[in-house]
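Record 1 of the preview.
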Amino acid sequence: MQHWLTYALVTTLFWGVWGAFIEIPEKRGFPATLGYAVWALTMIPCAVVALALVGWKLEANPRSIALGAAAGLLGAGGQLALFETLRRGPAYLVFPIVGLSPAVSVVMAVALLGESTTPRVWAGIVLALVAVPLLSYQPPGGQPVAAGRSWLWLSLVVCLAWGVQAYVLRFANETMRSESIFFYMTATGLLLIPVALWMTDFRAPINWKPSGLAAAIQSLNSIGALTMVYAFRYGKAIVVSPLINAVAPAITVLISLILYRTVPHRVVAFGMVLAAIAFFLMA
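->
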């Protein structure tokens, strides 16, 4: 199996499991913003392991620092922006828009990196791009659409941030080590913890007991982030980004179906079918 596919599959598996369990701490009273802080801290062991593998050789030139920090700020900043977006707008409209981020990655990779592939893989990419917003679909739950459009603009910001991040990861991997990229991603994630704490409503009751569970669940996210960086080292952005973003949610839905006996909406089920076909075409 090719290196990029191995790392991409690890990311999709870990993120798929992470997605199935991430709501548990929040439902038990541990806010998602504090969950972000826990996630940033779980990035540290992964960064330590990554640097140890390359003999603690960290690239500290201005270009490497800028690219690594950009990747981190786009990813972590997008996550924080998503929290605010969901406060202002309905999830059933926000997530399908955010799910279009791989399309941004594909356009940038083709236009700026000159990436191309076979017609068969292109067919898989197109199916994956269609599947992602379908897998993100959530039926309206009675939450009214806000009168303003701030949630829409924030959704587009998150979509753009995550789409550009994939491009930056591929671009950075051409001139620097993946381990250095991940180190700077970890550093920027930690620097944004105060923002997450500022966004947390400490006036509301907080159940601190699930914090250990949150750490275990967020570790899956961190490991998946590390292997994602490696996937972009060996693979093309036009393939890696749609593949990860389509297959991981499908795994989440499948696990939820098995564990919680939750039957997916027909739109989501159709997205799962498209994601499966896309996976076989691209991999």
